[in-house]
Amino acid sequence: MGLFRRKKAKRPIINREQAMGMVPVRNDHVAEERVDGALRLVYEATVRPWFAGPAEKLGLWDGKPMTKRVELDEMGLFVWKRIDGHHSVRDIATEFRERYGVLQDEAELSVASFIKMLGERGIIGVRQDEADKAPDTATQDTATPDTTTSDMNASDSDNPA
Amino acid sequence: MTPGTLAWNGISFHPCGLPLRRLDPDSAVLGDGADAVQLRWKRLSGPFRPERHLKRLFGRGARPEIHEGSPANGFHCVYFETPDLCGSVLHHPGSGMVVELQHAPGALPESLIPSIKDHSAGDTVPWRVFDIAARLPARWLLRSSAFRPGHFKLVFEVVGRRRVPESPKKGGRRPAEVRLERFAPADALLGKKTLAEWASGIWKKEPLPDEADDDGAVRWDVRPSLLRRMMPGTAFRRGVVHLSQGHNAILATLLRGRKPFDDDFSRITENYGIVPTEEG
Known about the structure:
Number of helices of chain A: 5
Low-confidence stretches of chain A: 135-161
Oligomer: heterodimer
Helix content of chain A: 25-40%
Largest sheet of chain B: 7 strands, antiparallel
Structural class of chain B: mainly beta
Mean pLDDT of chain B: 88
Strand content of chain A: 15-25%
Number of strands of chain B: 19
Radius of gyration of chain A: 22 Å
Shape of chain B: elongated
Number of helices of chain B: 6
Low-confidence stretches of chain B: none
Largest sheet of chain A: 3 strands, antiparallel
Strand content of chain B: 35-45%
Shape of chain A: globular
Order of helices and strands of chain B: EEEEEHEEEEHEEEEEEHHEHEEHE
Radius of gyration of chain B: 22 Å
């Protein structure tokens, strides 16, 4: 099966600091619409659905990209307003923390996962801020140290619990 | 406890500015990459010799250099060192608590080891992580925890006579359970809803009241009939949901069990709250 496995495109590996320094940029083709006070983002789906082939043959689909909508809640709107090509993810997370009184880590995770969701849908892109550009981005910090492990159950206890 | 102190499953320590990157019931990782420090701890009964523990830790690999350290907070301390790995083994002779630290050379903040304290032998055990703090009677043991942005949850089980919390579920009577939850940001979550309306959407199976009490908290306390108590399953259900004063967070304490646990529940709810963090 290895022969037929699809080769995965190499993705740049960046560490957490570099990711937080990235600047999200809006896709110009994304439209906004207001519905009952809520904001909806209207975007063209970047993926070709599995039923595209049969649907085209049957004349049910003309091959145009599908239009999709995503509705933002209050916090999503707060982040969306700050995606302007100038604020980095860290800047947005800091403003989010100040506005909502959550922890910095919590704000960073929330904002980063929301931005990732928008990116997966093609609503935004991210670019690396010139100041944060590292000479070699193909390095990755590991989350855990190179540690030696042993079972503490097997530690030096003559009368184990 | 000073702001930023982490109290978790029997011990407490100050991370000294290192970010918490992983938290398991009996271990924690502070910091990233080469600066990371790993802590593991366990309460043992009987004698403990750090040298034999280190012998098992390293096996037939590199022999570490071992130095005796000065005692701190009741712990006897032994340091070990290899060219690429350093660490310490702390043992509290009174409680049997053993704490092991591993880190790269030079990565350990000086004040981390002196900040380690043992709480495992007390009547109550403090819990303090991120911005939540609680104190529970020692018979409540941690079953699970989850820290997602906006929603922290700690689940405790009472130590029973017939089961230990780690044992797999085999049906039958479930042990009593306490859940501590924290939701944030409260204003965005509530929107135009009242606390009672919002809570009824979150805990759909709980018998929540339609309105909050005079102090703004939503409380429920279901005490079933004697016949119902004799039947299998959970009998008593109680809970408190309230907005944390001065913080944009919703705190909830829920209890389920075959006994009312009146004293425990009131002690847990009194001591559960939001605490200032170093960044705040």
